[in-house]
Each structure stands twice: as C-alpha cells, then as structure tokens.
Design goal:
This protein is an alpha/beta fold. The chain contains 5 helices and 5 strands; from the N terminus they run H-E-H-E-H-E-H-E-E-H. The termini are far apart.
Length: about 160
C-alpha cells in the first residue's frame, strides 16, 4: 500500500466515523424542556415524566384531576405530519398572546407512545383543551388559529 493509498484509507475511515456520529446524534431522543423553568409565552415540549407531574398522573390515579396551576392545551403531533406542522406556528403565536394565562404543551407521539395511547391520539393533530376544573375537551385535525383562540377563551379562560 502506497503512502497515498494509506492516507486515502485513513481519510475515508475518519469521514465515515464522523458521518455515523452525526447520524446517531440526529436519531437520539431529545429530552423535553423542564417545565420547572416556568417557561412563559412559549410552547413547551414535554415527555411522559413531565406530563405525570404537570398534567395528570395516570399511573397513580384513575379519576381525572388536572395537576397544573394554569389551564393548558396539549398538542399531540409528529414531525412528519403536515397538518401538525401547519398549526405549529399558530400555537407559538397563541402561547405568546396568552402568556401567563395558559400553558401549551407539545407531545411527540413517535417519542411518547404511551401518552399517545392514553389519549387515543391515533389521528393527529390532536388538541386537548384542559381547564382548571372539569373534563378535558379534544379536537382532532387542524384548526384555524381563530378557532383555537376561541377554544382557549371559552373552554380554558371562561370568556364568552
């Protein structure tokens, strides 16, 4: 093997290991942002652990009791879902508009299959509106921003 061939071989091995590491990093599960930071005016991505603390602990209770300190909207979504991507900017804008009044949580159904199954999120997007008192109300499919705003005002904030 010549020096040129040796160099080429080492270069190929280096590049392929670097590419493999980048691919592996993009395939790993990204941890959800901790809501303990009290993110205001932003959509918050949560995982099962955070859901059990902040929304409802279905592992210890069978009777619905919302655990949050403000009403919330759950957005069950997937990255590959076109309608989910369509409403995502609406949710970002509404999180800012209703800053300090509600939480908007996003749950990736591909990463959080148990939560998706618990809410029957087989058809997405699935928006679940959870008031401080009473039962959650769900809507399947993409809604226009105005309808989401109206649901937040009436279901979550009790405005007419």
């Amino acid at each position: 093997m010549t020096l040129k061939n040796s160099f080429l071989f080492v270069l190929i091995v280096f590049v392929s290991s670097f590419s493999t590491n980048i691919f592996a990093q993009t395939q790993t599960k990204t941890p959800a942002k901790k809501t303990e930071e009290k993110v205001e005016g932003k959509v918050i991505h949560i995982n099962k652990e955070e859901f059990l603390k902040r929304v409802f602990n279905f592992e210890t209770s069978t009777e619905w009791k919302y655990l949050g300190d403000k009403p919330c909207v759950l957005d069950f979504y997937a990255n590959w879902c076109g309608p989910c991507r369509m409403i995502s900017p609406f949710l970002d804008e509404l999180a800012e508009e209703f800053k300090g009044q509600i939480y908007i949580y996003k749950i990736n159904i591909d990463q959080e299959r148990e939560l998706a199954a618990a809410f029957g999120a087989s058809s997405i997007p699935l928006l679940v509106f959870i008031p401080m008192q009473g039962q959650p109300q769900a809507n399947r499919g993409a809604l226009p921003k105005e309808e989401i705003r109206r649901a937040i005002n009436t279901i979550l904030l009790g405005k007419k």
